[in-house]
Amino acid sequence: MTLIVAGALFLTVLSTGSSVSQTIRTAFKSFGYDVLLVFKSPVRIEEITSYLKAGMKSSRVEMWVWQDAKARQPGRYRSRQ
Fold it and tell me: Domain for residue 73, yes or no?
């Protein structure tokens, strides 16, 4: 019984890991780019685009800014905890 449960658990873990990897690959593929760079602090677009075009022989470079935000309904205040 122990071997059956251990085997089933092992297969579940492998299947879940494979599924997560495939989901991440599909998500990145849907964005339509080959390389993703994430910077810890803001950088100037001109510096990065010229560097990437020269160093990586890229035909096109795009920069996006992603920021976290919170939204509240008008008139509602954050509760104190």
Answer: no
